[in-house]
Amino acid sequence: MLFIIDISVVYLAFMVCAAIMKTYFPEYVLAFDQYFYIRLILVTVSIEICCIAVGLYNEKLRCGVREIASRILVSVILSYCTVASIYAITPLDKNPLLVIESIYFIIILGLFATRTALLLGDKKYIKKSKVLVLGAGKRASLINSSMKRKTDRLNFDLVGYVPLNGDCPDVDNTQPRLDITTGQLGSYCQQNDIHEVVIAADERRGTLPSKELLDCKAEGIFVNDIIDFVERETGQIAIEHINPSWAIFNQSPVKLSFSFVLNSIFNTMLSVLIFLATWPFILITIISIKIEDGLFAPVIYKQQRIGLNGRRFDIYKFRSMKIDAEKDGAKMTTKTDDRVTKVGAIIRKYRLDELPQLYNVVRGDMCFVGPRPERPEFTTSFSQDIPYYNQRNYVKPGLTGWAQLKYPYGENSKDAAEKLKFDLYYIKHRSFLLDLLILVRTSEIVLFGKGR
To answer: Where would you find the membrane-spanning parts of this chain (predicted)?
Structure first.
């Protein structure tokens, strides 16, 4: 819906400008009509990509009107700079003075008006899928534990939980519980317009109403498993409730194929482009570290990490901590870590400390997108405490990843377990298009200083 609205806003901006010109500046109409649709497509595509980049299509985005306005402004400025650059080197620049600027001004007003209306308006008119959960025990409690906020449930309305024999009796957050027997399941779903039945029984043998579930499927009701339901709605894998067969059947081996070679070429070319675009920031970072810590202070920090198939490699970063930060041994970084320098706090916030890892990408140790590589000391500990932790080493580590978009910075083993849920989701669903989406959305982290 947002995608269609935003396209309509861009089209409306072009039509308003066309109407104004025909009325007040008829001598410029011919120049404006030339390449009209090419300009329209160019502006539309750039606006949509920039809106993705600043998080305006993140359905679980939690922010107020002021932050929405700032994100719209950033996306429009990025789009304008891109389009203006293309105009400057193509015949598309034959527009009358300030026409493209007027179009973008109307786009800003239109996007702000529509987004504000959607943010503040009543969302009851948006039809959601009505979900009934079969089970009220530990597996069913996954919904409340992983989808606590309203923004986590934008796509569905939870009607209730149906208790089954064998459910864990100690669970009390699976509410409301519905007093219906399994034999009434089909009729209840039809009478209450249920769209999806989620199977979340703690004990399936002899407890699932197979005939009623088949009848539900015959009536067009989607029957789903709780693991797949949570995966679809949250973008993570519930590692506490999956079994070894999941890892066997959902793991794709990495092969030296055409797509693998193409991905390597893409990563190398992108590294070179990013270096050409960011070398001034690299130079400023080097000078800033020298000013703070002294002329002879080291700028680059080298550290061992675990890569593809458990192979160790050296990762390179701009030093953001004190020189003697690990005099007492390896420690995970915390949110209020006093080892971080003043310059380090800034470059970590905007991910500038990661820029030397472009060398790791070119060398083949890493990709742009993948699970973040962990230190050997922590990998050994996590693999003993967290099930399926070593599964993340089946793909190359990355500069950014699905977990970095979906979960805050990790400080302990509990955070590592939570991030693993997103890493496993990425490994299962990884594709070139998903990588592009993650790369574009990483721009939001950099632009709004959400890195650390």
So the answer is: 7-25, 37-57, 69-90, 102-120, 265-289
Q: Do 354 and 430 lie in a common domain? A: yes
Residues 119 and 175 reside in one and the same domain: no
For 53-148, list the strands marked E by DSSP. Answer: 129-134
Closest CA to 354 of 368, 364, 374, 375: 368
What is the DSSP secondary structure assignment for residue 1, as one 8-state letter?
Answer: -
| C-beta separation of 231 from 202 below 8 A | no
The two structure tokens encoding residue 292: 């703070």
Q: Which residue range forms the structural domain that includes residue 296?
A: 258-447
Please say if the pLDDT value at position 14 is more than 70: yes
**What number of other Cβ atoms are within 10 A of residue 117's Cβ?**
10
Specify the range with the lowest mean pLDDT, choosing from 38-42, 63-67, 119-123, 371-375. Answer: 119-123
Are 176 and 192 in contact by the 8 Å Cβ rule? The answer is no
Three-state secondary-structure class, residue 332:
coil
Closest CA to 73 of 449, 448, 450: 448
Name which of 109, 146, 129 is nearest 192 in CA terms: 129
Cα–Cα distance for residue pair 149/157, rounded to 1 Å: 13
Among residues 291, 295, 283, 444, which one has the least CA distance to residue 356? 283
Is 386 part of any domain?
yes
Structure tokens at 12: 């409306």
Query: How many domains are there within the chain?
Result: 3
- pTM comes to 0.78
